[in-house]
Write a structure and sequence with these properties.
By secondary structure, the protein is α+β, with helices and mostly antiparallel strands. The chain has helices at residues 37-42, 69-80, 118-135, 164-167, and strands spanning 5-8, 11-18, 22-26, 32-36, 45-47, 55-63, 93-99, 104-112.
Length: 179
Amino acid sequence: RVGDWVTIGGQDGQVSEITWRATKMRTKAGNFVVVPNSVLARDTITNYCEPTRAVRLQVDVGASYDVPPNVVKSVIREALEGAREISSDRAPEVLLVDFGSSSMVYRVRFWVSDFEADERTRDLVRALIYYAFRRSNITIPYPIQVELSATEGGLAPVRTEIGPAALAPVALFAALTDA
């Protein structure tokens, strides 16, 4: 329907007009996209306004292995309390989803009343989590990569010269001369 937020062919936009030849939509960047109805019939359409306008979004955040998961989850839930952009009909969910190489990864799921505000709300949620982590001394670890050159850390290549005396006891080389 006109006014619905949809994804068609990987493009998010708000339907502005439907004709017998094409469906027209305006993207969040303000671009006007015309999708021929023949393409529309073959493509998958995600409608963010049906059956209701409420949409669940998610944000992933890493937290230090030094902080117990129940503490991290509690801090995140408290940070999101009262954020008016987040729907109060359903409480946000916080799930531990991965043991990453530098952090434990939590997925924060929350509901918004309209898809149009998805990026702004994700931004808000990330900022609220960041400041809550700072207040609670929970670090978001940086990925750490250590690079050593061949001469550092005892990793210098070992070079040995193999002379005739070392090869003499090996039957395969017994027929060879020293030269």
